[in-house]
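Hey, I was hoping to borrow your eyes for a little while. No rush at all, and the record is pasted right below.
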Amino acid sequence: MWLLRHSQSLTEGSCQRAVNSDIPGLDSDSCPSLKKHRFSDKIASEYLCFLYNSLGSPPQAENNRQGVNVMQTKCHKSNKLGQVSDPSVPVCWDMGSDTCPKYEHIVHPFPPLYDESSKILILGSLPSVKSREQLFFYGHPQNRFWKVIAALTDENVPMTIDEKKQLLHKHHIALWDTIYSCDIVGSSDSSIKNVVPTDIEPIINNSKITKIFCNGNTSGKYYKKYQQNNIGIEAVVLPSTSPANAAFSLERLIDAWQKLIVEACGRGQI
């Protein structure tokens, strides 16, 4: 079946997180080699839904044995396998699962972080589920943002929100996002629609910011679409620190961020 054929794209870590979330039919013996086990279609659907909610993006979308694109089948109990509804809705394979993710309308729940001494602005897209729960930036424990910033500034990795704020202010770094409100499935950037952008001008006008960086392509896309013309500063797009960006190890992220920031700002500017 589809899940077995593409099990190599599913990491041991994500499998274990699924096990820890009590998805029926998955146990510790299923990790790390999913392809050694036979899963029912119901379990495959549950697992894909879990990946979508926890990682922000599912395994690479390909056709299952019945020729249905996993990423284009809407989650409804009444929906029969093979009925593709809205292709723009990137949700999981529907097998009648109550765990299929659903769209929520999200309004950004906390303010930007900056002060009059801020020199660079780093933009995300929209806070993840974990960040919205914590009411602060990059709250998912597997997001590498704080480790990258600590490495670039030669500081210890901050653990509390207060420590994170102190680190950013010390190094004149401002944080904000490109999206003020939207409809989204969990933390999945690819599901975002009905975007209302944030207002970045007050940050620029009340600080010393001359350089803007976007954490990931989604942030870069929305900044260029909605804000760049008004702000007049072209953003440098950095590789995303999200755990969904599995192609980049922590070391590779640090190297890439350092190179791009130094090229834009010069040495010693962060």
